[in-house]
Amino acid sequence: xxxxxxxxxxxxxxxxxxxxxxxxxxxxxxxxxxxxxxxxxxxxxxxxxxxxxxxxxxxxxxxxxxxxxxxxxxxxxxxxxxxxxxxxxxxxxxxxxxxxxxxxxxxxxxxxxxxxxxxxxxxxxxxxxxxxxxxxxxxxxxxxxxxxxxxxxxxxxxxxxxxxxxxxxxxxxxxxxxxxxxxxxxxxxxxxxxxxxxxxxxxxxxxxxxxxxxxxxxxxxxxxxxxxxxxxxxxxxxxxxxxxxxxxxxxxxxxxxxxxxxx
Length: 263
Known about the structure:
By secondary structure, the protein is α/β, with parallel strands linked by helices. Helices cover about 40% and strands about 20% of the residues. Helix 4 (about 110-135) packs parallel to helix 5.
């Protein structure tokens, strides 16, 4: 009789540590960041009161369209992301859970992350300038390009920087806008040879683009599937792999001559 009466109590007592462990596991910080659509900026215009692209040594055109680079915003590296946060984001289209290391390479030191992102942005700007001037057949000793984008780091604006430089200097080669007057957004790294690279977070960036008025989104071809996953209504995807191919696609979109790639 004694054993029968005391066993439930013993089980209840033993269950308390188990419940505690489960609660700890549920609310323990996880190595993730929660991301959402971020700001966009028209590289053909101003950002926070300063021209994004400034060119000297060559005539600069007045443009009418927009080329909007896109970003994501993520929780800071010292923000605690727990299992409930992950579950909540899993069921939302305006948020995504990403490995913290993919958002903040090199660890959680904020200053180190800022330096890393600034260095990536500088390298991206240099490559974008070189690729654009090479495409136009211009010498960087004669044409000076300055790129300025406040509070944004990383390499993912490279393609849009190159397109902005080209549009300001040459447009579509016939005196018209490369954008055809549209609001065109996009993302993608670029190297000095004009090759476009993948960046991540494109499903969130398409939402930021549509929110800010874009009707066309330039996406690295390798990320077409991700971009289609949560594609906002009214936004057309154009997959790209090179700067030359991107310009050709935009020219075909404007003139109606030639084919425009599709995801």
